[in-house]
């Protein structure tokens, strides 16, 4: 896992249990029409919800040098947000509704530090990673009705919620020979290990109905992206000695992936799982990539200065090293059907945004920089959070703060 270790050293680490209890406080009627909404942190570090009419709802108002908010993560129901509050005496995970009600603390500890949050698809549970003496994975009900349950420890640790919220698919310990994959049942708390040998990859995934898992399997020094169910394995890539980063489309019918060597990064590949049709896009070698909510496009984050790594030669490491000297990145929006690519305006990435990039495959399961209507992308830049229209390129500044994510 030399590539991953290098990222951790140079960039730093940034990376559901509890039974459903009737009609929960988190279940509310959804509006008939959703406006695009964005969660941002302002210059002071407070969290705000901004809707499509630029109306703002302040969710916190006490951020300071000693009270900090991180890991702003919207729920799939579009009605709640989870975040971590850091103070000198205690670390809390809070859940807050967008109806103006106060936040609810669902986890609190003096020593254990959460650093990544992920909602269950039904918005009733939170899984989170925390660092103590080692990296640990927990699940807690989003209504705070039960204490957090420890699933397992191990580093690195990546996971994916099953579509029905009943289980977590885990990839722990890295690749061969120490890594493994397993499934954790939310109800029984059982942890079942799979027989395949984990290859060089990070975040696993489920297919649409949760009957198959998508992982990278190793055979000696060779890695291959696979979909595995009770019947057998389906190859989703050619075998290679390189590692993989991959993200499934919203309907999980396609998988976008890149391969990585010591000093190389491939172009983007997109595989249609049912047909085996493969598309290769070599013109842009992105640092990260995110599917649009409608599944028609992929946003590729590409560095401007090719001598400093458009992404090929350890691109994320170089961009992070040079961020304070003004290195720029830009989105390239790939239309999957036509293969056409539209380049958007360049920006200097903010520090919190850079922290996401080495683990974008995991973060793609918990947040997005696409608006809910697939018409806008967010530029998390050093001079604020900007919303940019993918067709016209027109920009609007949402805040002078450093980080923003779209609300489903």
Spell out the blueprint of helices and strands.
Layout: H1 2-11, E1 38-41, E2 47-50, E3 56-58, E4 68-74, E5 80-86, E6 91-97, E7 104-109, E8 113-119, E9 125-131, E10 135-141, E11 149-153, E12 157-161, E13 167-172, E14 180-185, E15 191-193, E16 205-206, E17 213-219, E18 222-228, E19 233-235, E20 243-248, E21 254-260, E22 268-272, E23 278-281, E24 288-291, E25 297-303, H2 315-322, E26 329-335, E27 341-343, H3 351-356, H4 360-363, E28 376-381, E29 384-389, E30 395-399, E31 403-406
Antiparallel strand pairs: 1-2, 1-31, 2-3, 4-5, 5-6, 6-7, 8-9, 9-10, 10-11, 12-13, 13-14, 14-15, 16-17, 17-18, 18-19, 20-21, 21-22, 22-23, 24-25, 25-26, 26-27, 28-29, 29-30
Helix pairs in contact: 1-2
Largest sheet: 4 strands, antiparallel
Helix content, binned percent? under 10%
Average residue pLDDT:
87
Characterize the overall form: globular
Strand tally is: 31
Distance between the termini: 33 Å
Sheet with most strands: strand arrangement: 3-2-1-31
Structural class: mainly beta
Strand content range:
35-45%
Protein described:
The protein is mainly beta and 408 residues long. It is built from four helices and 31 strands. Helix 1 (2-11) runs parallel beside helix 2 (315-322). Residues 1-32, 307-317 and 319-324 have low confidence and may be disordered. The radius of gyration is 20 Å and the shape is globular. It has a domain at 279-408. The strands form eight sheets. It has a four-stranded antiparallel sheet with strand order 3-2-1-31, with no helix packed on it. The chain has a four-stranded antiparallel sheet with strand order 4-5-6-7, with no helix packed on it. Helix content is 7%, strand content 41%.
């Amino acid at each position: 896992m030399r590539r991953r270790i290098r990222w951790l050293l140079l960039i730093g680490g940034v990376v559901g249990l509890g039974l459903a209890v009737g009609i929960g406080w988190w279940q509310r009627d959804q509006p008939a029409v959703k406006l695009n909404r964005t969660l941002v942190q302002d210059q002071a570090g407070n969290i705000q919800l901004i809707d499509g009419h630029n109306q703002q709802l302040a969710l916190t108002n006490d951020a300071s040098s000693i009270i900090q908010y991180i890991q702003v993560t919207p729920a799939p129901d579009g009605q709640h947000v989870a975040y971590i509050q850091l103070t000198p005496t205690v670390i809390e995970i809070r859940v807050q509704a967008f109806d103006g009600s106060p936040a609810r603390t669902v986890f609190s500890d003096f020593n254990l530090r959460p650093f990544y949050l992920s909602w269950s698809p039904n918005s009733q549970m939170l899984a989170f990673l925390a660092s103590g003496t080692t990296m640990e994975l927990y699940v807690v009900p989003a209504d705070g009705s039960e204490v957090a349950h420890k699933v397992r420890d191990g580093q690195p640790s990546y996971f994916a919620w099953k579509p029905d919220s009943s289980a977590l698919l885990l990839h722990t310990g890295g690749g061969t020979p120490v890594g493994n994959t397993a499934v954790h049942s939310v109800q029984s708390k059982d942890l079942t290990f799979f027989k395949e040998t984990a290859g060089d990859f990070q975040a696993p995934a489920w297919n649409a109905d949760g009957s198959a898992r998508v992982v990278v399997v190793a055979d000696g020094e060779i890695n291959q992206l696979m979909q595995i169910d009770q019947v057998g394995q389906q190859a989703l890539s050619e075998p290679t000695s390189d590692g993989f980063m991959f993200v499934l489309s919203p309907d999980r019918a396609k998988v976008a992936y890149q391969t990585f060597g010591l000093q190389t990064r491939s172009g983007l590949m997109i595989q249609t799982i049912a047909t085996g049709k493969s598309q290769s896009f070599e013109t842009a070698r992105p640092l990260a990539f995110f599917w649009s909510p409608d599944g028609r496009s992929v946003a590729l984050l590409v560095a401007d200065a090719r001598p400093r790594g458009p992404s090929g030669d350890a691109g994320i490491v170089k961009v992070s090293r040079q961020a304070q000297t003004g290195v720029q990145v830009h989105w390239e929006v790939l239309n999957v059907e036509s293969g056409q690519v539209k380049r958007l305006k360049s920006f200097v990435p903010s520090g919190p945004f850079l922290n996401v990039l080495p683990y974008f495959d995991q973060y793609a399961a918990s947040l997005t920089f696409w608006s809910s209507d697939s018409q806008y992308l967010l530029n998390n830049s050093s001079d604020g959070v900007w919303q940019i229209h993918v067709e016209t390129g027109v920009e609007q500044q949402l805040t002078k703060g450093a980080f923003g994510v779209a609300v489903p």
